[in-house]
């Protein structure tokens, strides 16, 4: 029941009118006109019905980035998603996020069988039951009234479920997620709302889309002071530089003025970085300017992916001892990688101003989290030379890595990391860092599955972090 269309009840003409684009898609190198009155996703499904592949790619006329649409043909997946949608809150504990749709959809995409998918429901038995709805229902005129109030999650879920049914997925996402009122929250909470919503978009699940929008509404928009929304949306602003994220992060690491922003003793380093480092973050993020030009979007997407790979997988080595085999994979920097896949999922559907906004926001997040982790050194050579410390690998093929990533012993973020790295390796098979996608996957599985380690939240840029056990 949830695989019929990405854009329920929305015709091709309605979508085009809302996006102000021409009725032309580019598919597999050929230009094809799509008749009005046929929904985008229906047309995509017609072209993809002759193949057994789960993923469907079709180049977007908006940004030139291929659509990533993963078709779910397993009824069990739909059943479990519906069960989670009805029974679980979006948070549990002290604002921890419900990752069940992430885990079940990633497992499905990596080839997990029904037994493994069913186990995920049992593994995540710690999720909180859906709370009672608050008294006042939310409608289009009042949707901003309860933002950042997590008690209203079920009310927001009801509202967005109906909005998606009425307006369709694409129109609803553009109207709300990329509005000035909600976008800061979308990219807050360690980017979880953006990640959750992207799963709904990629896997054609209106249920998960509604959850992601509701999650954004009840998330505190802590990124708001750091973002340049109006500047990003303004096409008249021409780029003054061709800065890249890794270059900006290296400049941040060398900036002595940032030394005073954060101390090892600070408790909430994420929030402290926003409060004391906002001016510096905005200064460096302002240098990441992107032309409102379709030809440039794919280039900057590659930059986002590559920088996320490097800041995640090359900062995990002990800088105080180059002979040490100790590895600490950072929890927050890992989310820059998994959210890169979310960015890639959104871009085919976004007009250029919103595409630029999203790319610049991800760069801003990278600067923010890099400072909050103590600005750890990026040591590419040690990643290149890394050899597994466990014996879990039959070989290091992607098939083997994806198989290992579906193990029930794997912490749920690991499978998302492996899939993001795999997709990136297919997108960028050549270039300076082409071998590092697989190498980062090997390192992740070796440490997290083979050695049974956990994610680090110790801010590895501080030497003190390496004096304490993980």
Cα-atom Rg, whole angstroms?
A: 21 Å
Strand order of the largest sheet: 1-2
Helix percent reads: 40-55%
Please give the alpha-carbon distance between the first and last residues. Answer: 45 Å
Choose one word for the global shape. Answer: globular
Extended strand count: 6
- Count of DSSP-assigned helices: 20
Task: Calculate the mean pLDDT score and round it.
Answer: 88
Oligomer: single chain
Order of helices and strands: HEEHEEHEEHHHHHHHHHHHHHHHHH
Note poorly predicted spans. 1-53
Question: Can you summarize this structure?
Answer:
The protein has helices at residues 12-19, 40-48, 75-87, 100-110, 114-123, 153-167, 169-177, 183-186, 192-202, 206-217, 229-233, 245-254, 269-285, 294-313, 331-346, 352-372, 380-384, 398-405, 412-427, 436-450; strands at 24-27, 30-33, 55-56, 69-70, 91-92, 96-97.
Description of the molecule:
The protein is built from 20 helices and six strands. The protein has helices at residues 12-19, 40-48, 75-87, 100-110, 114-123, 153-167, 169-177, 183-186, 192-202, 206-217, 229-233, 245-254, 269-285, 294-313, 331-346, 352-372, 380-384, 398-405, 412-427, 436-450; strands spanning 24-27, 30-33, 55-56, 69-70, 91-92, 96-97. It is globular and about 60 Å long.
Q: Which characteristics define this entry?
A:
disordered N terminus, mainly alpha, globular, 470 residues
List the helices and strands and how they pair.
Blueprint lengths: L11 H8 L4 E4 L2 E4 L6 H9 L6 E2 L12 E2 L4 H13 L3 E2 L3 E2 L2 H11 L3 H10 L29 H15 L1 H9 L5 H4 L5 H11 L3 H12 L11 H5 L11 H10 L14 H17 L8 H20 L17 H16 L5 H21 L7 H5 L13 H8 L6 H16 L8 H15 L20
Antiparallel strand pairs: 1-2, 3-4, 5-6
